[in-house]
Amino acid sequence: MSDTPPQTETVTFTLNGKAVEAEKGELVIKAAERAGVYIPHFCYHPRMKPVGMCRMCIVDIDSGRGPALQPSCMIEVAPDMVVNTESEGTKKAQDGVLEFLLLNHPLDCPVCDKGGECPLQDQTIAYGPGESRFVEEKRHHAKPIAISQNVYLDRERCILCDRCTRFAKEVAGDPLIHFTERGSSTEIATFPDDPFSSYFSGNTVQICPVGALTARPYRFKARPWDLVENESTCTSCSVGCRVSVQTSRDRVLRYQGVDVDPVNWSWLCDKGRFDFEAVHGDERLGAPLLRRDGALADASWNEALGAAAGHLRTALETGGRGSIAVIGGARLTNESAYAWAKLAKGVLGTDHVDAQLGDGLPAAAVLGLPRATVDDVCAPGGTVLLVAPDLKEELPVLYLRLRHAVVSDGARVVELSPTATGITPHAAVSLRHRPGETAAVVRALLAGGEAPAGVDPDAVAAARDLLAGDDLTVVLGRSSLAESAAGPVAAAAAVLEARPGARFLSALRRANVHGALDLGLAPGVLPGRVALDDGRDWFTSHWGSVPAAAGLDTAGILAAAADGRIETLVLLGADPLADFPDADLARRGLEGARSVISVDLYRNASNEHADVVLAAAGYAEVDGTTTNLEGRVSRVSQRVNPPGTARADWIIAAELAFRLGEDLGVESVADLWAEIEQVAPAFAGLTADRLASAAATDGFVVPLPAEAAPEAEPDEAAEGDGDAGEPGVTQPTAEAVSEPADAPATEIVAGADEDAAADDVEDAAADEPGPDRPALLSFAAGAPGEAPAATDAYSLRLVVNRRLYDRGTLVAHSPSLADLAPPAVVHLTPKDHDRIGVGVAGVTEVRIRSARGDVIVPAVADKGLAPGTAALAFRQPGADAATLLDAAAPVTDVRIESVEGGGS
Amino acid sequence: MARLSRDNLALAQEILARYPRPKSALIPLLHLAQEQDGWLTEDAMEHLAELVGVTPAEVLGTASFYEMFKRRPVGTYVINVCTDIACSLVGGDELLEHAEETLGVRDGGTTADGMFTLQGVQCIAACTEAPCLQANYRYAHRVSHDEFDQLVDDLRAGRKDAEIPRHGVLARVRQTIPAERAAGAIVPEGQSEPAWLAAAESDAS
Ligand code: SF4
Ligand code: SF4
Ligand code: FES
Ligand code: FES
Which CATH architecture has domain B77-157? Predict the structure, then answer.
């Protein structure tokens, strides 16, 4: 990492009579704004290239040849430039531009969603002429027209600023809207029957400076002055975009993107923007459910918690600690995740805890690999290796950032993937390989090994050149759920072996999965990125006890349950029947568990098997923090009340502990955070004060760098460094640990402002020389697994990827998004497509048969597929890819045959 | 009708090869599509979008900017009668009115037999020869009402075929650029063609 500050030359110019410093190359409008002088504008947007369309920003600029009216959004500051934003000429120009913009503007502010927050309205009042000389009939259009399912266009209101169209082309890369016609007939349009179906379409509504673009989910719902807002963080995926949650009368009405530099640059994806509807979904659980006479029925909290505690107690008595398992937790805030980890591992004593549903990576890899941030991955001129799923489908705003890095900042992407992805058109090299070969391809690229057959040798050579440098940033995830996590993990090990300085960004998708793992909701770890054995003494001193040995992950838990070895299974916001990539095992597991407790927002397939369902409070209903894929901790805010009597997950954990005769020792989210900061090593120094400070908008990547902990007492700090520097790691890749981003945090003694509860917890550690704060976990490469056997001549290797819109909870319960989920269809290489005979004699569907089961789906030819593979997306309407998968198999081979007669 | 025919596709490939970037070929290709069908169908615009690697919306944006690209069916002959100031002073408006009577359609309309589309237009840059008109962009100067009727008769009877091709045909002589002089496709700066693309294409064949 280069810590040298960017070399910026400064330029001095005169602004309204005062000398002002600006960066060289800065636009006048921006330099003026930084100097506190606002220049009215419509088309200029700080995150897009200027176009000079609207002329509103015209000011007097004298570049040495006398003052002239020039658009300040198009002119760069120059030495000795004299800018006057208050001159007579400027005023007259502003007057004129506004009068002109309003010629055809309908001025229907009273029925316009934008009224009250409209730049056109505001600037007309501030800078406009007050009346118009235009008495002729205005232009009329049908209003509004839908340009996509969720975005409506009122052409009468449009001032042709080119923001939406620029966004579509420049930022989203989906130029599906365009100016059409000419002169006063110019309008924004899509191609007929080709809607603006961009994953990012909602951003155009946010940036349209008038009410021309409105979002269907928000139309006529509220006036801006009735909205109350709080900054929060989107948890619809793990990118963690900063949002403003806007509510009125206890309803969430919309999210708007907030511009933070390190993450989302003000953009949101449509899933994140519009799935607020799921907060108030009709089917939200407002009360606990208890199984009575075979059916789930409403119950009081007392009964339900009593019953749940009863199941746990019975399990402890009959099966012992190892007979309880907890699956899920990625939906939870960090605080709730910690409370559940403490309940499961400290109170119930089980380590069979996993926040992932067999669709992620082992916690040891996610927590232990040296880390990269989004900015590292998107560094100008950098090279990034993608061993990851389709970012556009799974982590949309990360895709936007990476796309920008490539298109505008000269970054280069080397992509390893079995299928073409959203980033493929921007990749310098995109290598197609079959599942199971990931590590072999990485070795071929970085260590000069032989690339597996079928991988294009020219592409390998090109990629080798690009990856020759020492610095390497990798985005690591599962490009196929039909390949076990061992593939990408082996790939990561291969990267580290060849490039010890490499850093990784985890591409796990689920909401707060990184927070859940950080806080111990995974087998073999304890809160704060600590391995179970390393943290045993420390946590025993805080919690009283910890599990004796590492437990099972979700696949292991389900298998154990299927064998009758799990008494009580807790589903913590998890729906394994729908989400676990092995439908058969999930079903057997749920049926095999003696009792099932579900903590959820909704009823789902899995909690139909539950004996108790505890209604949880969800997003926008709880305060706390969340952690994104970088390890960036940022706040989520409560704005509305949960439905009925639904409760925060941590309260449920505390209540259950209480009923088991234990005390979690926390009474509020603040208590929980104070305890996390004290107890969980990765979070040391991230005090509540810090989280409440202005800097918190950007969030804090944990562990905090040592210098960011000013209150640290020197001796403590040294001690912290001491035990951290000797992580007791024995694995071959220990060099990687010296990477600063991964260096354990300095130990910090928090200020005196901590809550009493935390102090209680801390007593032992503070007064006596208790156990040392454990070191953070680091990645140890396991023995490389066997390369999976080659497919036989009749089989294709299955790729199971994901689409942004699927049948997942958030999308399914958001009416504006639910029907955007595309039906399942299998992608075949053109060769296999023809060989199987799709498209011949009316055949459109194929049967895919694996060792586990079969599905019938339509098929399409796809040139972007690796030879010998077939790709089917997970959880789409029409077919369940999970029925084909075997969680224990490293890869899945399938046979595909045409289904005579086409349609089902 | 609709997408480019085999022959026209071959022509399109030839045109594309003349330009360093495919997008530059869009206007000539729009003319080619209009020549094929007499107007620009949506299917044709979609086909061109595929050929030059942009979205159909972008093709529409370009096509709709130019008045000469018709996005509705028009007659075999499009007659533009100038009604701008110079022509108007010497009977341009009357000429348009007369044309409406003769053809039995209003300004902007197309005759039932699909032969003529009539349009009143702004100055067509032949003011010294006012009043004037164009039939498929071929000029007629100082047009009297009788001459107009004669022109219509001649066009109907096919007597003008040698001078005035049907709508959409810009010129009978097609520009040919020998292949060795074509600029040929270049890969945008700073990018290499993804190697898998060639691989996938050879795999597909
Ligand atoms: S619709 Fe809005 S953003 Fe798009 S050009 Fe019109 S005014 Fe600008
Ligand atoms: S990319 Fe992820 S975090 Fe950002 S808005 Fe979309 S769902 Fe939310
Ligand atoms: S803001 Fe400068 S021209 Fe629009
Ligand atoms: S006015 Fe008719 S050609 Fe100029």
Answer: 3-Layer(aba) Sandwich (3.40)
